[in-house]
């Protein structure tokens, strides 16, 4: 199965500037999804983060339609009066007639309706069946049948063209939902997916080739200085370290300053999300660190919600013991400080033998005695309802990662989403990600992958795969992803054992990096956030909407795509200096300091090359061309002999699927220095 993208939608500069102004004054956009103000999964994040960019483009002509839930209305919706008479009449009509139709406005605007996923697709099918004058778009973020097939442990990607889709859907009792999804894909004027790999999947399972790929973006918050997000990393890491101190009380025989925090997070789909591969790689990493006598320790977090009945008592006790030790230390410190102060007031140096009395020593001995325990620190922070059959816990028992003193890799399974109000680990997800060193997401089925994208925006390196939309997107836009902290695991052309070995190599190489190298790599990772900003990726949605208008209203709109030249496109070049991988780089001095501050204008290396963070960042950012947004303007009426608006842009109307797989050095354009 080929995994190539079409050139015309492969990279951000591949979308040429709009040559004609596009009037949206009499055009209305409705975006319909089950996750509008209703947080269920990743589509909620897509709509929430994209709303500002879309609102800037469409103004008051942009409407989101979703299910009415009391919780959603109370927490996420601001109730307002309808801004236009047409909308007021529409809502009044819907209320009085049971949502049977939409009211018409006098001006008869051109309506674009964008439907997300099969749950909203029935509205699209009815629009076409009733021949309503609406330009329709359907986006599938993951095919229904694809998710079910991958959960069944089949060789999915090598057998896409061989599946009997009707039979497979029927056997899984989802045939009615599958038919709705397939009908919506075929009825839409424009059909889109979030990644190239999902486009190929949709072509085989839904039997329609997507017209355009619309990658998912985020609202990127840029810092005025590079060291700001590095400081946030240090602050968040300190919060995680406090939890680790309590969780491993009595067995805290490793150096927290030489401890790395890895994590995986998401829906509890053990194989689809790659938790099985991650655990196997951790077992091999543990062996490598032990036999090589490494002083580095790895704490791996699994943040995946599962069925539990409460916190683990031993885990809660650990945090209580930590707090008791902290209170004891503060009490002794206050008494010590008071005696020191009184001694200095009378002009004499304190007698150190009298600074602490027997009561102080007794208090400290009691606190130390409370930290003693015979059992290993718990692997799971909660009491699992299905402890004996839980996939993660069963695998941990098999590979023997029990958090013993001899293990250099420790595992913590937190089967609940993170919250700043938790009595156990009181941090929200964003703060937790910022405090970790590496996100590991070796997914087998991941149509896009918001978790590694969020890591990138926060400057945290991550591991993704060439079977995820995010991994393919970054591999296409970056000449050497690992140099920028984006490790792409090959799960398409390697077997499971080889993929585990490759992931182990990534993790072990990361453990060998010095603190200086990790800081440099985080700087590079954070610079990639421009690629994931909606102000760039939102242009693909603009193309889809203009394409739909041209197909639904050809007398008013035109869309004339053409193929991009072979030299178009852009790939981040490999950084010119200070490679982060220990196997490819050397320390700038014989004794690398672990206490170095952020390297901005670092010393020259052994080849005489000086590292300049600002200069390197400027080189990369020069290669991202800011998009020119369509501006509102009046247009000549179609009755006067000219079109309402004309768009001449780069994306082709279909996704190409060449016969050869994407090579590491693709023909997407020469690397720029």
UniProtKB/TrEMBL annotation:
Database matches in InterPro entries: Glycogen_synth
Superkingdom to which the source organism belongs: Eukaryota
Stretch list, region Disordered: 568-673
Coiled coil: none
Pathway info: Glycan biosynthesis; glycogen biosynthesis
MF terms in GO: alpha-1,4-glucan glucosyltransferase (UDP-glucose donor) activity
Family of this protein: Belongs to the glycosyltransferase 3 family.
Function of the protein: Transfers the glycosyl residue from UDP-Glc to the non-reducing end of alpha-1,4-glucan. Glycogen synthase participates in the glycogen biosynthetic process along with glycogenin and glycogen branching enzyme. Extends the primer composed of a few glucose units formed by glycogenin by adding new glucose units to it. In this context, glycogen synthase transfers the glycosyl residue from UDP-Glc to the non-reducing end of alpha-1,4-glucan.
Subunit structure as annotated in this protein's UniProt entry: Part of the GYS1-GYG1 complex, a heterooctamer composed of a tetramer of GYS1 and 2 dimers of GYG1, where each GYS1 protomer binds to one GYG1 subunit (via GYG1 C-terminus); the GYS1 tetramer may dissociate from GYG1 dimers to continue glycogen polymerization on its own.
Name used for this protein in its record: Glycogen [starch] synthase
Source organism (scientific name): Balaenoptera musculus
């Amino acid at each position: 199965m080929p995994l190539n993208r079409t050139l015309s939608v492969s990279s951000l500069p591949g979308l040429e500037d709009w040559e004609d102004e596009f009037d949206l004054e009499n055009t209305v956009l409705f975006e319909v999804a089950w996750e509008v103000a209703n947080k269920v999964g990743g589509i909620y994040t897509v709509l929430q983060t994209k709303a500002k960019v879309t609102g800037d483009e469409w103004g008051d002509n942009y409407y989101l339609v979703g299910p009415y839930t009391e919780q959603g209305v109370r927490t996420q919706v601001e109730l307002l009066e309808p801004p236009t008479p047409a909308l007021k009449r529409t809502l009044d009509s819907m209320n009085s007639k049971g949502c049977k139709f939409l009211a018409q406005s006098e001006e008869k605007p051109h309506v674009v309706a964008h439907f997300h996923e099969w749950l909203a697709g029935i509205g699209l099918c009815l629009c076409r069946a009733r021949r309503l004058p609406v330009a329709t778009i359907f986006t599938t973020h993951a095919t229904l049948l694809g998710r079910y097939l991958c959960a069944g442990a089949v060789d999915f990607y090598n057998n896409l063209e061989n599946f009997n889709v009707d039979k497979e859907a029927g056997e899984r009792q989802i045939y009615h939902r599958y038919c709705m999804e397939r009908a919506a894909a075929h009825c839409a004027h424009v059909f889109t997916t979030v990644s190239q790999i999902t486009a190929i999947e949709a072509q085989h399972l839904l039997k329609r080739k997507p017209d355009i790929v619309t990658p998912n973006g985020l609202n990127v918050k840029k810092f005025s200085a590079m060291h700001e997000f590095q400081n946030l990393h240090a602050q968040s890491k300190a919060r995680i370290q406090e939890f680790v101190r309590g969780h491993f009380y009595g067995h805290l025989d490793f150096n927290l300053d030489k401890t790395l925090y890895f994590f995986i997070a998401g829906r509890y789909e053990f194989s689809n999300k790659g938790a099985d591969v991650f655990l196997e790689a951790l077992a091999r990493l543990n062996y490598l660190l032990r036999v090589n006598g490494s002083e580095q320790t790895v704490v791996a977090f699994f943040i995946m919600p599962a069925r539990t009945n409460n916190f683990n008592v031993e885990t809660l006790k650990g945090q209580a013991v930590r707090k008791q030790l902290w209170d004891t230390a503060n009490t002794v410190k206050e008494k010590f400080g008071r005696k020191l102060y009184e001694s200095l007031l009378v002009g004499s140096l304190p007698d150190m033998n009298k600074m602490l009395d027997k009561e102080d020593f007794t208090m400290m001995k009691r606190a130390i005695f409370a930290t003693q325990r015979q059992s290993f620190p718990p692997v799971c922070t909660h009491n699992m309802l299905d402890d004996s059959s839980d996939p993660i816990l069963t695998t941990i028992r098999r590979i023997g990662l029990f958090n013993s003193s001899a293990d250099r890799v420790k595992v913590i399974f937190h089967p609940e989403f993170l919250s700043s109000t938790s009595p156990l680990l009181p941090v929200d997800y964003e703060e937790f990600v910022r405090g970790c060193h590496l996100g590991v997401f070796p997914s087998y089925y991941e149509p896009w992958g918001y978790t590694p994208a969020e890591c990138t925006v926060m400057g945290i390196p991550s591991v993704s795969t060439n079977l995820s939309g995010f991994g393919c997107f970054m591999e296409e836009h970056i000449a050497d992803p690992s140099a920028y902290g984006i490790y792409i695991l090959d799960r398409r052309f390697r077997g499971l054992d080889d993929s585990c070995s490759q992931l182990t190599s990534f993790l072990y190489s990361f453990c060998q990096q010095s603190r200086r190298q990790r800081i440099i790599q985080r700087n590079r990772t954070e610079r990639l956030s421009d690629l994931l900003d909606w102000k760039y990726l939102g242009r693909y949605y603009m193309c889809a909407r203009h394409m739909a208008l041209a197909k639904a209203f050809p007398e008013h709109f035109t869309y004339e795509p053409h193929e991009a030249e072979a030299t178009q496109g852009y790939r981040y070049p490999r950084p010119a200096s200070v490679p982060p991988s220990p196997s490819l780089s050397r320390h700038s001095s014989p004794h690398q300091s672990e206490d170095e501050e952020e390297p901005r204008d670092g010393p020259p290396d052994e080849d005489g090359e000086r590292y300049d963070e600002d200069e390197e960042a400027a080189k990369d950012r020069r290669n991202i061309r800011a998009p020119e947004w369509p501006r509102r303007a009046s247009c000549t009426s179609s009755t006067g002999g000219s079109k309402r608006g004309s768009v001449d842009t780069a994306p082709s109307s279909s996704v190409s699927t060449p016969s050869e797989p994407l090579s590491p050095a693709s023909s997407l354009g020469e690397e720029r220095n």
